[in-house]
Amino acid sequence: ELFFAIVGDHDEWLRFDYAYSSGGRYVLPNRIVLDFGDNQGQPLVVSVNRTCPDPVDPNRNVSAAYTGISSDRLGTYDPVYGGFAYYAPLVFANKGGLNSLIHLQNLGIECSSLELWFKGQDNCLRPILGDVLAVAPGESVVFDPNSVVGPDWVGSAWIRASEPMALVIDTLGPNHFTSYTGVPADVYDADGFSLGSMVNYAPLVYSEHQGWDSAIQVQNLSGATAAKVKVYFLDKSGDVITTVVDWICPRGSQTFFLPVISNMPGNWVGHARVESQEWWT
């Protein structure tokens, strides 16, 4: 029944796909009703692992992994700004040999244009704008930040679209390959959607430990208010080794690189807690 109703009919396919992805109801032309809310499949989790040759030494490989983006991490339509928004906390453009690529896929049922706003680290002035004119439903595009910023640039990005998007940010460089997924923006409506948190934890961090180092990247998800951030570095027993306090501009980001933080011992393994502090102007 689905074959004869959907194949070759774009509009019917969109109605079916929307009902399936949203847990709704799809009514076939012969009035058969498919209720995907009452007849759900089983929950899944996806991990994507990739390996490629090192960009400097092709005799070596570098690897990165990211977790698949579930439907509850697509964000919510903002009725005030009219669209969906997402954050990429760490983006490089020819910085120390590191370059990032932003992969975006349209998960909606209509075409979408994209605005990509880039804010340099420690720079609270006007961000730099890049754009993609059109992305079809299901289509994925790759945006190179070097086309609008750089060289020697590091910062964060804010992406706005009219349809829900999936974001994966790759960073590649000498003996380096990292990958992570974007974070949907807050929506200040009656539901108060937010994936951000006032307290965040990093269970495992290194400082000059057998060649391993850690950098904690913190982004302010507010578009209007600066954030006062305090990072606690704790040893395995939970004792506080040292703390660092810094300000982060709206939609900006800050890096806490362990080897350059004073009072941090070498050859150290522990964990960290990042808090957004209450403050008064």
Structure commentary:
The protein has 281 residues and is mainly beta. It has 2 helices and 19 strands. It has helices spanning 2-6, 10-22; strands spanning 25-27, 33-35, 47-53, 61-67, 84-93, 99-106, 112-120, 128-135, 140-143, 153-161, 165-173, 176-181, 183-184, 199-207, 215-219, 227-234, 240-248, 253-257, 268-277. It has a 5-stranded antiparallel sheet, with no helix packed on it. The longest helix has 13 residues, at 10-22. The radius of gyration is 22 Å and the shape is globular.
In brief:
The strands form six sheets. A five-stranded antiparallel sheet has the order 8-7-10-5-13, with no helix packed on it. A four-stranded antiparallel sheet has the order 9-6-11-12, with no helix packed on it. It has helices spanning 2-6, 10-22; strands spanning 25-27, 33-35, 47-53, 61-67, 84-93, 99-106, 112-120, 128-135, 140-143, 153-161, 165-173, 176-181, 183-184, 199-207, 215-219, 227-234, 240-248, 253-257, 268-277.
The largest sheet has its strands arranged as: 8-7-10-5-13
Rg calc:
22 Å
Strand percentage? over 45%
What is the share of helical residues? under 10%
| End-to-end distance | 64 Å
Average pLDDT number? 90
The description of the largest β-sheet is: 5 strands, antiparallel
Structural class by helix and strand composition:
mainly beta
How would you spell out the order of helices and strands? HHEEEEEEEEEEEEEEEEEEE
- Unreliable residue runs: none
Task: Give the total of beta strands.
Answer: 19
Shape: globular
How many helices?
2
